[in-house]
Structure formats: C-alpha cells, structure tokens
Amino acid sequence: MSTTTAATTAWQTGQGSQVSEETLGRIDKWWRAANYLSVGQIYLLDNPLLREPLTRDHVKPRLLGHWGTTPGLNFLYAHLNRAIAERSQSTIYVTGPGHGGPGLVASAYLDGTYSEVYSDITEDVEGMRRLFRQFSFPGGIPSHVAPETPGSIHEGGELGYALSHAYGAAFDNPDLLVAAVVGDGEAETGPLATSWHSNKFVNPAQDGVVLPILHLNGYKIANPTVLDRIGDDELRALMVGYGHKPYVFEGGYDTDEPMVEVHRRFAALLDEVLDEIAAIKARAAAGDLTRPAWPMIVFRTPKGWTGPDVIDGKKTTGSWRAHQVPLANARDTAEHLQVLEQWLESYGAADLFDATGRLDPDIRALAPSGDLRMSANPHANGGILLKDLRLPDFRDFAVDVPKPGGSISEAPRVLGEYLTEVIRRNPDNFRIFGPDETASNRLQAVYGVTDKQWNAELLGPEVDEHLARAGRVMEMLSEHQCQGWLEGYLLTGRHGLFTSYEAFIHIVDSMFNQHAKWLKVTNDIPWRRPIASLNYLLSSHVWRQDHNGFSHQDPGFIDHVVNKKAEVVRVYLPPDANTLLSTYDHCLRSRQYVNVVVSGKQPAPNFLTMEQAVAHCTRGLGIWEWAGSEAPDEEPDVVLAAAGDVPTLEVLAAVDILRRELPQLKVRVVNVVDLMRLQDAREHPHGLTDAEFDTIFTADRPIVFAYHGYPWLIHRLTYRRNGHANLHVRGYKEEGTTTTPFDMVMLNDLDRYHLVIDVIDHVHWLRASQAGLRQRMVDARLRAREYTRAHGEDLPEVRDWVWPDAQDLSDSGQVAATVATGGDNE
C-alpha cells in the first residue's frame, strides 16, 4: 500500500449528466460479483465457481456469518466506487453493521487490495477458494469487518459507534469523506442515538465530511427495527431535528422495476448529495462557517436483498430470517443444498469472472485506482500517516521541590501547562476529548492557546467562554462520543487524550474492550502500521470524590483494563506533579497501547525533583530512601509500599509516626508508578523478575501495601511472588459517602493510623510490646472521626500534616494544607 495522502484531492461537483448505461451495467456487475463472493464466503469450502455440481462436501461444516445486511453494503460500496473515481474524492467506508464482513472482504478482493496485502489470496480460482475457506473458519478471519479487513477502522461487532468513529476520522481531515453506514438495529443503541449530534462539532472548513447512511432494512436478529416502523414523515422529522437534510431512497421492493433503474435512481441521488457537500465545502472555504444542514441518506432495502425469497415455506428475504445464515442446513439436506446452488447461480458468475477466476477487467474498472480505493485509503491504516508529535521538554514545566513535600501543586494543572505547549506545537493533529470536564480536571491552561470546538449556536463572550468554530478541545457530555471520536482520530493517524472523572470512565468499558482487542490483533498484522496510543487521564478520583459521595467513588476501571493482553495495556499512578509530567510525556510518545494515568486534581505535596521523578518513572517503582529508616547494609523489618497519590501521602504520614514512635524499627518505603511492574516478567513486558521483586520487597518480610484501587488487584498481580503470603493490601473496599477527605480514607482503612496498626499487627515482635501504641492509633482514628462530625472538616494534625523535613517551609507559610477540603460538584 502506498502512502499518498488525501490532501491532493478537492471537493468536486459532478459532471451534471446522467450516469451512462455502460457505467450502470458495470455497477450492477460489481454488485453481483460482491454478492456472489459474500455468499461464497459464508457457505463454500470448495468449488468456488461452481465448475461442477454442488455437493455437501463443498459446503462448510459450520455455517457462520451474517447475510442480511451484506447486499446493501455491497450496493453502497459499488456506487461509492463510481463517485470516488469520477471526483477523485478521498473516501473511507465505516460500516456500523460490521456483521457484513463478507461484503467488505469481497469488495477489497474485487478492487485488488486484498491480494496485495495477502499474497496467498490470489486473483484466480485457487485464490477465491482460499478467500471462501478462510472466512469464519479456524485459522482464518472473523466474520466482522475486523482489523484483518483492508480499509476498516471499525469492526462493528459491537453496535453503536459507527458515527462517533466516523466523525473522529473526519476531524482535521478537510479533504476526507467518511461514508458511515448506520444499521437500523444499531440506531437503537444509546451511543448511536447520541452520536447524531456530532454534526454540531464539525468545522466545515478544517474538518472532513461524514455522510451518514441509515441502512433501513427493517430487522434485527429476531425483531423489527424501531426506525423502520415509525413512518417516513416521522423519520424525516427525526433526522431534520438532528440537524441533517435527509434524502430517502427505496429499492428492491418493486419486483417489476428493472435493476438498472434502481441503480440509476441511486446514482442520481448520490450525485445530488455529493454536489451539495461540495457546495457546503466551497462556502466554508470562502469563510462561511455557519453550521449547514449536512445531508444524510435513508437507504431502505429488503433484508437479505437478492437472497432466496422463501425457505422451507417461510418468508426469508425482507424478513428477520435473512439476518444470519438463511440456509442453515445447506450441508445436511438436499433441499437446502439445491436452493444454495440456485442462489449462487443467480448472480451469473460466468459473466463476472473469466476461466482463470479473475474478475472481468471491465468490472474492475469501476473501482478507483491506488489510494483512492476505499480498501487501500491510507486514512484507514492511520499508522501510515502518523507523524510524531512535536513535544516540548517536559522538564521545562517542572515544579520546584526544595525538599520532599516542600511544595504543593495540583498535578493536572501543572500538566495543563505542558499540554498547552503541546497544542501550540501541534495545531492540526492533537486534540483533547472529555465530557464537560477539561477545566474541572484542571487542564484549563490549554484555553490560553485554543478553544472548545462548537458549531451549534453561539451567544457571545458574555455567556459563552472558550467556545469557537475551531478548537483543539472537544467536549460533549457523553463519554461514548468522546471515546469514539478519539478512537476514530487515532485510527486515522493522529494523537490525543481523554480526560474523565474516574468513576464514570466505566461508561466506556465495552468501547475500551473493542479498541484494546483491535490493537492486540493489529500487532500481528504486518501491513497494519502502529498508531498513537489511547491515553486516559483519570482525575477527580475515588479518594477525592468525598464531596460528591458514594456514587462518584469507583476506581475499578484499572481492574477492567488489566484484564487485557499485557502487550497492549499500561497503568500509571504518578504520586505528584513532576512524576505526572514525566509519565504523560512518555504516554504521548508511545504507540499501540492503552495508557491509563490516574492523578488527583486537588492540592497535594510534591515529593520528587524532576531529576528524581524521571529516574523514578523510568524504573517504574523504587525505594524512597529518604523516607525509610533502614540502614544501607541492613534488611528492613517491614516494607511500606504505595501506589497512587493519596496512598503515598498516607504511607509517608504513617512512616512519620513510626519513625517518631519506633525509632528502632527498620522501615523501607517503596513507591509504585507503573502498576504493571508488580507482575511477573514472564506475564508482562514491564514486569519484574522474581529476583528483582525480592530485592525490593524482600522475600520474607511483612509488606503493607497502600493501593489506590481495589486491593485484590495487587494480590492478583503478585500471587506468584515469594513474599505474597506476607503481603497485606489496603485499598478501596466499597465504603464511601459525602464526607471529609481523611474520613474517606478511614472508611476504607487506608489511613495513616490504620497503616501503623497494620505494621504492629504484622511485625511479630511488635505485637505484644507495642500494644499501647496500637491503642493510641485506634484512639486517633476515633478522635479524627469525632472531629469531622463536630466541625465538618479534618482535624488540624491531619489537614496540616507535612513531611517533617519540610516542616520549616510549612512554618514559613510556603507549604499549604496537604489536602484541600473543597471540591467541584460535577
């Protein structure tokens, strides 16, 4: 595949004449050939061109796939081929009904791309046999429009994301047309229903164009679809209400209408739509950025169009029975086998493929050439177009840390200053996505160089702040759209990040699943080039949602992410501002990962200088010698470990108590930034070897681990380690409410006093001798709880605590309260 970009194309109007009879005939033959290849993929194991009578041995033993949506997808693909070739219009094809995989594979085979990327699938009888055999077959390819399919950026196996992916692809691609087919079943999902609003976020000059095509074939697996049963007037009104100008097409229901007339009608409609788009783009180029009523097509055709009308005496084509495999017993019953043979013969393959099995060159001529083929468009293999970000030196944004705990920052606010410069240097291939939370999550510094893109109504600066027709920040109160936009943006060769409240990132759990699976699969597809990583910044996290309460307290996205393949996922828990800067610079440089970074947004101490932070983040975890009390040549009595900013704070506060109360106790402090370092090196590329793990955590000493999330994840990551039996983890255990920050950690036994209790309980020689200290820690918890109930804030010894080496700065007023008592309400 070549690397020509779409920037050389322009938005052209049509020639103003009807499509010729010759071209209409070519479109019909392409459609028939694609349908033939699609049916063959679902059913045939051998005898691809029916050169001999069909037998049961020619039919696959397991019939898998989806026929019902496929002929409509093939029809649209054929007509788009004609328009692309005539207009030289760079176009990609996003298919929400991703179950129509055989159709997209067929078209990629017909235009030659498939054989270019898979040299064993040759353009002859043997290649066609292999094409058929591999589909939904062990060792072959999936039945969806999967990563293995050239031209795909959207598998569609899970419905709902076609339009959000399409708009993400269109952002900052001013010459790209994204033909986005929305299944009428898919249109019933919440994410898809919301994604119609994406047209309010498109700048008609700087962005490309999404052409939504609602594929209205009437049925899902076993039920009718809502949009097919509401009537044309109501459907039109719905689309107009979403801001579109709908064009309605119906074909295939009038059996007396010659097929050439059906093609003629649709070709004329498509030209009208594309001419209207060209006119909108021309007006935008002249400076008119008002939001147009973007055209969309309602494409109504029978389910399973061109398939057997009746099977076993029951209506099939035009009903839900055509959805998957209409002839489920084609291998086992003579009647079904005969119907299958007649069905295949109805496409006239002998007129489409020559004696060697090669497509008739006249039919091939319908397809555009080179990168203009939708299956070969570089935007659908975004790594080809990916450029490295021009990144500033993150060290220039470092906060001063004269001593551990000697300064206070809101870590994401510091990151926002860095991202401001990232945006300044990358004005056309980097965006920030989030559900109305960019400022809430403290990244508002970016508004110094950009605005939020907004193409709905503007009310003026006295009301609207940082809204503009063009901007690098994309905010819509739908996590689904933010995720889908970002995925589409990344898959077409750009960079970005998604910032969200930690508890509500769960909304996109399933979307994350699909993207992580896509990355995993593409790692093993040589022609798929690596893309920029999907970067999350989760702030407003579980420990500082004390103001919003229990509903906002959930750190479980990390657990969900860690379920995915080790070569794809990374999880980072930087403890302060400088480590967050170092971590995020790494994430923005990375490829083919999902990077999850969790960082609190409230004022908190900084512990590491930038030089120390870089070394610490490079290691992924490390011993903080300045915090511990072990001698250089001695083993510790206990290891206190932390992963996360609030756990780090509580561990250090606990160590402060231990150093004062038990000076003879040898304490080692370990901080973990890269969570996957805890896993075995044989299970994750970032993992430690057993020897490395034992060196840091010891093999036989108690380990008290304060963790940001659910404690069992740490056990899961370390269950094979020698010292696992000595590991005692504190974390979130589903206890929360609207309360003070310290009361929140006490509810989950993560507080400093409880950590001291844990040390006494697990260092055997302290159990009896330090009963008095243990009791004082219990009393301290009670006192802290009572103070919050009486005063509505945390007691001063907690609220104003700083690491003792920074005490002199605190006394002079240079160090503020460790934890702020306020917070945002959504």
From TrEMBL:
Major enzyme class: lyase
InterPro entries: Phosphoketolase, THDP-binding, Transketo_C/PFOR_II, Xul5P/Fru6P_PKetolase, Xul5P/Fru6P_PKetolase_C, Xul5P/Fru6P_PKetolase_CS, Xul5P/Fru6P_PKetolase_N, Xul5P/Fru6P_PKetolase_ThDP_BS
Enzyme Commission code: 4.1.2.-
Pfam family, one: XFP_N
Domain Xylulose 5-phosphate/Fructose 6-phosphate phosphoketolase C-terminal: 601-803
GO biological process, one term: carbohydrate metabolic process
Presence of the UniProt keyword Aminoacyl-tRNA synthetase in the record: no
Keywords annotated in UniProt: Lyase, Thiamine pyrophosphate
Boundaries of every Xylulose 5-phosphate/Fructose 6-phosphate phosphoketolase N-terminal domain copy: 19-384
Cofactor: thiamine diphosphate
Gene Ontology molecular-function annotations: aldehyde-lyase activity; magnesium ion binding
Homology family: Belongs to the XFP family.
Designated name of the protein: Probable phosphoketolase
